[in-house]
Design a protein that fits this description.
The complex is a heterodimer of chains A (214) and B (237). Chain A has 214 residues and is an alpha+beta fold. Chain A has a single domain, classed as Aminopeptidase, CATH 3.40.630.30. In chain A, 36% of the residues lie in helices and 22% in strands. Chain A has helices spanning 14-31, 79-83, 114-129, 140-148, 175-185, 189-200, 209-213, and strands at 2-6, 54-59, 65-73, 98-106, 133-139, 154-159, 166-171. A seven-stranded mixed sheet of chain A has the order 1-2-3-4-5-7-6. In chain A, a hairpin with a 5-residue loop joins strand 2 (54-59) and strand 3. Chain B has 237 residues and is an alpha+beta fold. Chain B has two domains: 4-162, Transcription factor LuxR-like, autoinducer-binding domain (Beta-Lactamase, 2-Layer Sandwich), CATH 3.30.450; 171-231, Arc Repressor Mutant, subunit A. Chain B has helices at residues 4-13, 18-32, 56-64, 72-77, 94-105, 135-162, 177-187, 192-198, 203-217, 222-231, and strands spanning 36-42, 48-52, 84-85, 111-118, 124-131. In chain B, a hairpin with a 5-residue loop joins strand 1 (36-42) and strand 2. In chain B, helix 7 packs across helix 10, helix 8 crosses helix 9 (203-217) and helix 9 packs across helix 10 (222-231). Chain B is elongated and about 60 Å long. The chains are: A alpha+beta (214), B alpha+beta (237). At the A-B interface, helix 3 and helix 7 of A face strand 3, helix 5, strand 4, helix 6 and helix 7 of B. Chain A: It catalyses: a fatty acyl-[ACP] + S-adenosyl-L-methionine = an N-acyl-L-homoserine lactone + S-methyl-5'-thioadenosine + holo-[ACP] + H(+).
């Protein structure tokens, strides 16, 4: 299932938390060779994990991490504006309607539909919170995966070549893209909506507030 | 011609003191036709500032009862950054329910929509619209006004930060050459397709550059952003 968890609530899911940061170490350090820091527990965290980001996480039935991404507002410190201005034509992309999506990670043992499930969840966040675009940093391997699930970003700029390439891209979800990723993920839209409501609360009726309070 | 919302934002943009923020929020409440609009901020030193239309006896009661500790809106928004409809928050505890009853009795309303804002250095602010009405009516209101409420919330915070004593102007609000190019071409009357072609970017990318420029200019839409850039001499046509 999809979980939406702010960093300061991650301790409620210790197994998920540990395996997410370990899978990130495995993906970004071991497989991609990025210059990221790994702590003595074998976990990969950077300064942006300290800014209380919102994680969107695919939790496997055994409670471990299957895949995840990290969301932050572009109105505050974020990777794209702090480190990748050279890939955005020098434009500092900053708006309450644009969020940053980074550290898109898939576990080695992830089911094939995990990436699509995460994109579907990204769409829930967009429609639930009025987000119009994501700007994200991603590695070369993801280009093919995004294309496969019908959710290719628009590449603003890239550096490096081959498997070492790092790109900055933009996503904006159309209803059609949403249906496409839902199908690829094999998750009915109402299930996806239920997971979102589980994290952020249901729209409980207040039509008779006086009675409810009494 | 500029719309009412944009005129109020113009006035907000020229605010010289906190009393001008109060004037803007009163005007906005009237315009949005909701019972209340409130802006409330706390910085890392624990200093608080607020402006808005809540009755003063409620503000006093809130402070006297130390409701900051039980208010589900504060609990649910602090350190987060997604906007919330109050119905999604957890009102199940006894203190939260009696707080809600008290708020409703003071005319705050049974519905609310709050936008949390994270400023620099631990600054945190909330911009809230509240109203007394049924769920359907509130859903219609939030659906059609969510975008503007989010944008206005951030403008209020931007202005409040600027008015903080000893604050240096933020470089991040400067437009980059690409954003200036995009706005200039739009001001000259070119279509988006033509502008994108001239800048050799896709229309999709252009949309994001314009959105980014709009945000930095504190405008509500592209036309408003162009007007602001022109009046500030940032672009010349």
């Amino acid at each position: 299932m999809i979980r939406y968890v702010y960093a300061n609530d991650l301790n409620d899911f210790p197994r998920l938390k540990r395996t997410m940061f370990q899978d990130r170490a495995d993906q970004f350090k071991a497989r991609l060779g990025w210059e990221v820091d790994i702590d003595d527990k074998g976990e990969e965290l950077d300064e942006y994990d300290g800014l209380n980001p919102l994680y969107v996480i695919w939790e496997k039935p055994d409670g471990t991490h299957g895949g995840s991404m990290r969301l932050l507002p572009t109105t505050g410190p974020c990777m794209v504006n702090d480190h990748f201005l050279n890939l955005t034509d020098g434009v500092r992309i900053s708006s309450p309607l644009i969020w940053e999506c980074t550290r898109f990670c898939l576990s080695r043992t992830a089911e094939p539909r995990t990436a699509a499930a995460l994109m579907l969840a990204g769409g829930e966040v967009m429609s639930g919170f009025g987000v119009e675009h994501y700007v994200g940093v991603f590695d070369a391997r993801m280009v093919r995966i995004y294309r496969m699930i019908g959710s290719s970003p628009e590449v603003l700029g890239a550096m490096g070549t081959g498997r070492d390439q790092i790109s900055v891209g933009l996503w904006s979800f159309t209803e059609q893209a949403r249906l496409s990723v839902a199908e690829k993920a094999g998750i009915p839209p109402e299930t996806s909506r239920r997971w979102f409501n589980l994290a952020f609360g249901d729209l409980v009726t207040t039509d008779q507030p006086a009675q409810r309070i009494a | 011609m500029m719309h009412r919302r944009e005129l109020i934002l113009e006035a907000l943009g020229q605010a010289l003191g906190l009393e001008d923020l109060q004037e803007s929020i009163v005007a906005l409440r009237k315009h949005f036709r909701v019972d209340h609009l409130v802006y409330h901020w706390v910085n890392s030193a624990g200093d608080q500032y607020g402006c808005g239309t809540y009755p003063s006896d409620w503000v006093q009661r809130y402070l006297d009862q130390d409701y900051l500790r039980v208010d589900p809106v504060i609990v649910g928004c602090y350190q987060r950054f997604h906007p919330v409809d109050w119905k999604r928050l957890d009102w199940s505890s006894k203190p939260a329910r009696s707080f809600q009853a008290d708020a409703i009795a003071h005319g705050i309303g049974n519905q609310g929509f709050s936008v949390p804002i994270r400023g620099p250095n631990g600054q945190f602010a909330l911009f809230t619209a509240s109203h007394h009405c049924g769920d359907m009516e509130w859903e219609r209101f939030t659906e059609s006004n969510r975008r503007d409420l989010i944008l206005i919330a951030h403008e209020f915070n931007q202005k409040a930060l600027e008015l903080e004593p000893g604050r240096k102007p933020e470089k991040s609000r400067n437009l980059s050459p690409r954003e200036i190019d995009a706005l200039t071409l739009i001001a000259m009357g070119y279509s988006r397709a033509q502008v994108a072609e001239a800048l050799t970017i896709s229309e999709h990318t252009l949309r994001v550059y314009i959105e980014s420029a709009r945000s930095k200019l504190g405008a509500l839409n592209t036309t408003h952003a162009v007007a602001r850039a022109l009046s500030r001499g940032l672009i010349i046509v």
